[in-house]
């Protein structure tokens, strides 16, 4: 086919192919020409299979190439999917990815439903909202979560989830920043840091990236790092209640952390996505610690409170008091990032968020959280009864089970093969997670009970 | 107040302040201590006002400091808000930011409403979705917009909007990439490039950033750059129909562009957010051009078709055929970015997107687009009748009006002061926009008519 013919085919089909009804079998009508190499051919002898493969002259981002294998949770999904055809009759139960399973309380979904419907009316329609979020929602977040802590409405940036904001924060801090993470920790901190070029290469032996400070958290130190051994980093990612260990830091520990940050001039990125799971008097927010506003920002989420994992809503608090070395407010730069790289969370979803923070909504969220906490109790009791050392679970939806001396991925595979239950291998959260398995409390009650029955059979 | 007292205040208030009802006047109860300087005091004489201001030791990202003033649209909103108190009785009409105004067709909102409601049921609940988007939506995007063009479902990445994906693409390409933009162009390309560190400093005289190739588009070249004068860049951002000039590239021009990219080994980021506004036979997708899949990806949006500016939904097409210099597929790295830095678009919103692509939904979107195109006609006729040279508008919701020899911001201010109509100064889109004003066709009909009456009074 000549180039002319090809173009004329494209022209004649363009008006019908755009917004075309899919009644015609278009799929096999790819009319693009075999490609030619222009400008990128750099060697004389081209291997046979590459002859017709055009490559651009754009170098792959070297930071992307540093990333190891897949992001943890897609990798687990891949292994789960590979398991299914092998055991077609098995009832696979997922206590792996930390995905919520219980319906969203009706008071919340009906608010989203109403907002959706209103968008089809002149009065109820709204276009671009404030990138930082709708004022009533920002105000409700302050009064619900930060009452008395000196956080203002304009310190709140509503987002489409904590994971997304973590990446935006990394873009804000830039490639010259250095980071510290709890080890083990939620993989998005490390992976987004690698992507931004803050790290060195992955060191296979250590199972660590260069230039990241891994703060070991294990049973010996009560899952709080020995700060006297931690090197200074610009940014300290700290998650409490912790994903994956389920451990919540005490007021004294967080006071130490804030002091450590102050002594070093570091910024704490405090991930409080599980704060509502705290049952005792441990802090729900880093801003409960005096002076924290000068060294910390906090990111949070509706995902695990209201079942919003698929709905997508979170927020980040950046206090005006948090300043860079040159005195420039971090919040001003974050505002610029939010305005340039984001366009605000969906208005429909924000209506859901506002309903979450109504008296009925808060009550309903507490019930959802309470349900998952009961699941955590069941899982903890099970592993305790089997003689395992079990951590977390009390103030978090994650149970952290110790299999001393064993490989996490081996245990993950053993559990999947023999019980058809998907868990998460601790080493997926960093080398400090090796020998542990994270069991998520997110699941229907009968699934959690059934999974625990199978655990008892396997490890009795 | 001592530290001990302070801590005990925090402890005693913590359980009630978390999820507290906002009946207590907490706002004045900020109990944080006056801060002290630890570790960052680097000079002996501290100015009086800085004595109590704690600064971290974290350097501000130098790329953020390169950014000029505010992002364009928040800046316009700021000027609009400053205008209001000066003219409290004026009826301000916004034809500025490009924000949709017409209600979303009911067939679409009812799908979102239903999906919301379903989330409160066991059967209808869903948690984390695929980061790349729901399969039926990805399939519908292919059949609606890319039928016959050889694009597969798994080339589609559903997003929360084109602006957000542009930033994610910049993160993907990294700080070593070089970019070219149409001049004038949508500011997010340049600003996200600055943030990623791809550029030099802002050069006040030239009104350009260093290390960006600005491809001048003006009436003289039919708003298509003279590619013989364009230096190679890794990434070429190209928007057609163009924001802000409203010009849509012809098939011959896009064929030239694809050839230019191929000759240089560049990657085209083709922004087709306004494709449905094309009335004639110009290409709606870069993939209508033979060979484009090897040199281009395409980002698009429901915002201007279905009034989704506040609802947030878009997509990016990254063909498998698009390869980096080392042969690594761009799509694989983009997939990793999407999985690490994003968690998928809201499930409620994706239900709306799927409804957009049903036969009724497509019909309804065409009507919305048709309505705004009539507005564009009215605006074009107005400025034509006043003797201005007017561009765009035929295949785009933007009318690009020439005020030769005048400053865009001066004209913007003149129009705002004298007609209370908000437009957008062309120079906000780059130096090539100087002397132009972008008038958006997004508005209620009576507002557009009234704005045009006022334009006629001002410029008669």
From TrEMBL, chains A, B:
Q: Which CDD domains does the record associate with it?
A: AAT_like
Q: List, separated by semicolons, the cofactors it needs.
A: pyridoxal 5'-phosphate
- InterPro entries (UniProt xref): Aminotransferase_I/II_large, DapL/ALD1, PyrdxlP-dep_Trfase, PyrdxlP-dep_Trfase_major, PyrdxlP-dep_Trfase_small
What UniProt keywords apply to this chain's record, in alphabetical order?
Aminotransferase, Pyridoxal phosphate, Transferase
Source species, domain of life? Eukaryota
Q: Where is the Aminotransferase class I/classII large domain?
A: 91-455
The UniProt entry, under PANTHER family, shows: AMINOTRANSFERASE
From the Swiss-Prot or TrEMBL record, give the protein name: Aminotransferase class I/classII large domain-containing protein
Origin species: Hevea brasiliensis
Its ancestry begins with:
Eukaryota, Viridiplantae, Streptophyta, Embryophyta, Tracheophyta
């Amino acid at each position: 086919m000549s180039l002319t013919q090809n173009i004329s085919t494209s022209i004649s089909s363009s008006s019908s192919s755009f917004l075309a009804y899919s009644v015609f079998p278009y799929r096999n009508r790819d009319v693009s020409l075999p490609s030619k190499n222009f400008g990128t051919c750099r060697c004389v002898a081209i291997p046979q299979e590459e002859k017709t493969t055009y490559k651009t002259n754009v170098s792959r981002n070297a930071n992307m190439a540093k990333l190891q294998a897949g992001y943890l949770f897609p990798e687990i999904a891949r292994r789960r999917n590979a398991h299914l055809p092998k055991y077609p009759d098995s009832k696979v139960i997922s206590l792996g990815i930390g995905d919520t399973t219980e319906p969203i309380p009706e008071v919340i979904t009906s608010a989203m439903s109403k907002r959706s419907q209103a968008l089809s009316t002149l009065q109820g329609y709204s276009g671009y909202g404030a990138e930082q979020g709708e004022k009533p929602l920002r105000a409700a977040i302050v009064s619900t979560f930060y009452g008395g802590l000196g956080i203002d409405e304009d310190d709140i940036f509503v987002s489409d989830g904590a994971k997304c904001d973590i990446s935006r924060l990394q873009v804000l801090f830039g490639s010259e920043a250095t980071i510290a993470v709890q080890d083990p920790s939620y993989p998005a901190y490390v992976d987004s840091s690698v992507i931004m070029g803050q790290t060195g290469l992955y060191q296979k032996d250590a199972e660590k990236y260069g230039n990241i400070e891994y703060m070991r958290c294990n049973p010996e130190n009560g899952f709080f790092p020995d700060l006297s051994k931690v090197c200074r980093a610009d940014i300290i990612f700290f998650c409490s209640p912790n994903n994956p260990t389920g451990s919540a830091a005490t007021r004294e520990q967080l006071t130490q952390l804030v002091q450590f940050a102050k002594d070093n001039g570091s910024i704490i990125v405090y991930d409080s996505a599980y704060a509502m799971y705290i049952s005792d008097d441990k802090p729900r927010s880093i801003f409960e610690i005096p002076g924290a506003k000068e060294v910390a920002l906090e990111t949070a989420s509706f995902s695990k409170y209201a079942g919003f994992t698929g709905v997508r809503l979170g927020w980040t608090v950046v206090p005006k008091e948090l300043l860079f070395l040159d005195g420039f407010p971090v919040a001003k730069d974050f505002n610029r990032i939010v305005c340039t790289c984001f366009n605000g969370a969906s208005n429909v979803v924000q209506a859901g968020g506002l309903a979450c923070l109504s008296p009925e909504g808060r009550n309903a969220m507490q019930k959802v959280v309470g349900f998952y906490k009961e699941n955590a109790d069941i899982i903890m009791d099970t592993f305790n009864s089997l003689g395992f050392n079990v951590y977390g679970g009390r103030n978090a939806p994650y149970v952290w089970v110790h299999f001393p001396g064993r490989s996490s991925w081996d245990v993950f595979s053993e559990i999947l093969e023999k019980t058809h239950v998907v868990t998460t291998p601790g080493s997926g959260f960093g080398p400090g997670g090796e020998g542990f398995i994270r069991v998520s409390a997110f699941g229907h009650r009968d699934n959690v009970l059934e999974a625990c029955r199978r655990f008892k059979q396997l490890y009795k």
